[in-house]
Amino acid sequence: MRIVLVGPPGAGKGTQAAYLAKNLSIPHISTGDLFRANISRQTELGKLAKSYMDAGNLVPDEVTIGMARDRMEQPDAVNGFLLDGFPRNVSQAEALDQALKADAVELDAVLDLEVPEDEVVKRIAGRRICRRDSSHVFHVVYSPAKKEGVCDACGGELYQRDDDSEETVRRRLEVYHTQTEPIIDYYRAQGLVVTISALGKVEEVTRRAMDALKREDDESSDGESSEGDASA
């Protein structure tokens, strides 16, 4: 399957992408990984992206699209892929459609992880990170430390990152609503959007997503069969 994963910050896209890619036996392609891989390998696109980043500028869409297209053409993606963090806006979605069309393939589904805005704020603003080891992450509601402000694992101080503050989270949500959310309507017009609730335990959301994607795949297969019968 060829899938685009969308959802607001805090929806758990990274976590779900990893589980879904494993269950579907397709590569998880994230924008962050694309940039890191191209920059570390010093590809032409990586060098170009780094020049913009070093200058404090946004990387142009065509550079991001070039990286994504190159990755989607790798052997492990021949039977499908899961895009996470791309496309981020309608112009990127249109460019992705053109790239896929040129390769004679198309998307199977756009999985929309739906989370109420207040829940997003609670999830992100409640995170606390250990100053000694940033891999130690707690949450004031969902996974609180035994002693407030102290890491269970190493005794380090727990703190809230600046970009996890409620004010910053709400600004990130505004950007999502303005720039990324419109791609849902863009893909809905193509009949590709599958919306599921991203509330609940990780495994529950994964099961919900797998069930929804299976139904979408079955319906697509039935549609193709019906069209084939009609044209015979």
From TrEMBL:
Residues 210-232 are annotated as: Disordered. Gene3D superfamilies: P-loop containing nucleotide triphosphate hydrolases (3.40.50.300). It comes from the Bacteria. SUPFAM superfamilies: P-loop containing nucleoside triphosphate hydrolases. Pathway: Purine metabolism; AMP biosynthesis via salvage pathway; AMP from ADP: step 1/1. Coiled coil: none annotated. Residues 30-59 are annotated as: NMP. It catalyses: AMP + ATP = 2 ADP. It is an enzyme of class 2 (transferase). Consists of three domains, a large central CORE domain and two small peripheral domains, NMPbind and LID, which undergo movements during catalysis. The LID domain closes over the site of phosphoryl transfer upon ATP binding. Assembling and dissambling the active center during each catalytic cycle provides an effective means to prevent ATP hydrolysis. Catalyzes the reversible transfer of the terminal phosphate group between ATP and AMP. Plays an important role in cellular energy homeostasis and in adenine nucleotide metabolism. NCBIfam families: adk (TIGR01351), PRK00279.1-2 (NF001380), PRK00279.1-3 (NF001381), PRK14527.1 (NF011100). Belongs to the adenylate kinase family. This is Adenylate kinase. It comes from Streptomyces ureilyticus.
